[in-house]
Amino acid sequence: MSAEAADPGAPLRRRSRPRIDLRRLGRVALRGPASRDRLPDAIGHVAEAHRAHHPDADLTILHRAYVLAESSHRGQTRKSGEPYITHPLAVTLILAELGAETTTLTASLLHDTVEDTDVTLDQVREQFGEEVCYLVDGVTKLEKVDYGAAAEPETFRKMLVATGNDVRVMSIKLADRLHNMRTLGVMRPEKQARIAKVTRDVLIPLAERLGVQALKTELEDLVFAILHPEEYEGTRALITAANGADAPLDTIADHVRTTLRDAGISAEVLIRPRHFVSVHRVRRKRGELRGTDFGRLLVLVGEDADCYAVLGELHTCFTPVISEFKDFIAAPKFNLYQSLHTAVVGPGGAVAEVLIRTHRMHTVAEAGVVALGNPYAQDPGAAPSAEPSDERADPTRPGWLSRLLDWQESATDPDTFWTTLRADLAQDREITVFRTDGGTLGLPAGASCVDAAYAQYGDRAHASIGARVNGRLATLSTTLSDGDTVQLLLAQDTASGPSPDWLDHVRTPAARIAITSWLTDHPDEAKPAPETVDPGDHTEPPVGAPARGVPGRAAPGAAAPARTRSGPRTADVVVDGPDAPVRLAGCCTPVPPDELTGFVVRGGTVTVHRRECSAVAAMREIGRAPVAARWADTESGGTATGCRVTLVAESFGRPHLLADLTEAIATAEAAIVSATVEPPSEQRVRHTYTLQLPDAAGLPALMRAMREVPGVYDVSRAQHPAATG
Asked: Rounded distance, CA 342 to CA 315, Å?
């Protein structure tokens, strides 16, 4: 193991214990179990490692599990010729060194019995209880499908399902893969490469996300050796040469120990060698390696506050490299990792990277969820639940895993599942955004408001029409940053669907799969995006106005989508020309009795503008032919029906202005769809309202009423600037 097994109270060694001789264990295993009064020698190493982390652990169940596993696998051998029992023993030892609790170790010893022997799940349940049975069954399901290229998507779908119910299943699977990778040399080179690629693409990212760095780093080195043998050997030579030379990190470590001792801070200062892949990455980044690039200093303390005390002393007594400072204690990584990272300049100008953490943080950094014990153990003081439930709420499960489990059920196509799984695992950073109700959303870096909408509302997000980010109106395509506050706005028409354009802005599998599924199920309702963007249109509608490009949803600034009728005509507008859908432009929000002009955009839709709209001139300049358009009621003599309009109120700032404007709007029986107030500039304030009017004829009276509000010096129809191109 490359793990530095972390007993919080004990000093750490470079390796937790020497690598166990599996051939010797195999010979011991062949002799069968020992007498009743002592553990078999073959499992003695497991018991020793387990007791180092759990001194009071009851080893009886491990003894019984070993006896069953050894007798069941007796006569079976691995491809290397070793007795098969050496494999579950090695897997269990890996987990024991990481600090796994007894139930996990018991299941690990038995993880291949149901698949490869005559032992049944019922027998496991009867002898070892429901928890062990559940874990063994979960690991067994992962082994049901061969690791052939065509089977990989379904294999890892099952892995996620099993992991979602209990993260210990994945812990056993990762340890199982690590031992298999250690012994991969007996297989054909092409099979080694195939298994190494799957390990690289899926299992290593999963180990990273579960926080099991000890497994992740060794898996990385093993994959590196198989897939890039020449670079691996070159890196090995560099490390070997560095180990034989003077170690500048030793000098800096001594200075750090002296500094902290003089400051009265109790701390353990260790040199933490980089693993092969880490050295290779540093070399590619910097070109020529420095003597301090082969390792980092690790400072372990007792309390969180001591971490910052150490940081203060180091930055006071050494020259810090400020750009290297990161605080993962105040803002932990998505995989539970906590630590302070910094770099200081030592004697002679040597720069050393320093990690500062508590013993407990180090345990979690190395072992991740494995170090957190049994997440389902009952609190002795808690009252038993009234009814048993099949749902297993996992307090150790990170948010990213919850999201994967949410969308994997929707990805019915294995190829879609596989592609989105790998894309999600490739995300190396996660952000947290805040909801206005006090909740939070965990999203990958680069996520947009579309991603946030689907993370919060699921399929209800199909009706999204906009968002407010940090209190300001924003389009759905807006990229979110860590710490943003986002409020998602949904249309009242919940039957409406997403725009195909949204796929250009999503980063999360949940959003992509939900949008793609809806578009696939509603092919007649999904319209392609315009080939030439109408200067009066916008990629996303103003907040409160429904999104464009999706039939069944109102166009920006319109009360309802303009449907074609004989003529063609709609309930509001008649256009001259071919039978085509009609929509009202969001840039100028025309209402009766505005004079109209239309233009045909891609897909045959006619976008109708006010004649004085700047977009009309822009369309003419690029050679677009206008289409005659008029209000339907001018033919029939009827009255205009309800409409949506955007108004801009310019005012001087004063207390209660917003309340007075809102009251004036309500008195005119207009409904506020959305509103925004720009920050004051030279004591002047600009308000923008999107309003739903029961009758377009009431618009002039409404604008007069708003102008009469004290402090308001102008009210005008919104006129978005025309786009170019």
From this structure: 9
Query: Which residues are CB-neighbours of 447 under 8 A, at least 6 positions away?
Result: 431, 479, 480, 506, 507, 508
Tens digits of per-residue pLDDT, 229-287? Answer: 999 999 999 888 887 666 788 889 999 999 999 999 999 999 999 999 999 888 888 77
Q: Dihedrals φ, ψ of 672, to 5°? A: -85, 115
C-alpha distances out from residue 108 to 4, 56, 69, 140, 430, Å:
21, 20, 10, 11, 31
Q: 368 and 336 in contact (C-beta within 8 Å)?
A: yes
Query: Does residue 19 or residue 619 have the better pLDDT?
Result: 619
User: Which candidate, 198, 170, 168, places its Cα nearest to that of 184?
Assistant: 198
Question: Which helix (DSSP H) or strand (DSSP E) does residue 121 occupy?
Answer: helix 121-128
pLDDT tens string 710-723? 878 788 887 654 33
Among 539, 403, 396, 516, smallest CA distance to 466 is for 539
Calculate the dihedral angle through the C-alpha atoms of 244, 247, 250, 253, rounding to the nearest 10 degrees: -140
Give the residue numbers annotated as catalytic, written as ranges.
115-116
CA–CA distance, 40 with 34 (Å, rounded to integer):
5
Strands (E), 221-363: 268-273, 295-301, 319-320, 326-327, 340-345, 351-358
Is-contact 427 507, C-beta < 8 A? yes
* pLDDT tens track for 188-238: 999 899 889 888 877 888 888 788 899 999 999 999 999 999 999 999 998
Helix residue ranges, H only, 342-398: 359-367
Q: Report which secondary-structure segment, H or E, holds 141.
A: helix 130-142
* Of 193, 318, 308, the residue nearest 255 (C-alpha): 318
Closest CA to 113 of 153, 69, 77: 69
Which runs of E-coded beta strand occur in 240-294? 268-273
The single-letter code of the amino acid at 75 is: G
Q: How many helices (H) and strands (E) does the chain have?
A: 26, 20
Query: If you search the block for the tokens 């030439």, which residue do you land on?
Result: 532
pTM: 0.58
Rg (CA), the chain: 33
Helix axes 509-521, 449-457, angle to 10 degrees: 80
Q: How far apart are CA 177 and CA 173, in angstroms?
A: 6
Torsion, CA 641, CA 499, CA 414, CA 431, rounded to 10 = -120
Amino acid at 47: A
Sheet holding 573-575, edge to edge: 573-575, 626-631, 596-600, 606-610, 582-584
Q: Quick one: which of 611, 479, 648 has its CA closest to 536?
A: 611
- How confident is the model over 608-667, as pLDDT tens digits? 888 888 788 878 877 788 888 887 754 443 444 567 788 888 887 777 778 788 888 888
- Distant-in-sequence, close-in-space partners of 38: CB < 8 Å, separation ≥ 6: none
**pLDDT tens per residue across span 121-143:** 999 999 999 989 988 888 887 66
Q: Which residues pair with 443 in a beta bridge?
A: 431
Q: Is the peptide bond before 593 cis (omega within 30 degrees of 0)?
A: yes
- Residue 481 pLDDT more than 80? yes
Q: Which two tokens stand for residue 82?
A: 């070793």
113 contacts 72 by C-beta, under 8 angstroms: yes
Q: Give me the amino acid identity at 104.
A: T
DSSP annotation of 496: -
Grouping H, G, I as helix, E, B as strand and the rest as coil, residue 374 is coil
Alpha-helix runs per DSSP H in 167-212: 167-182, 189-198, 204-209
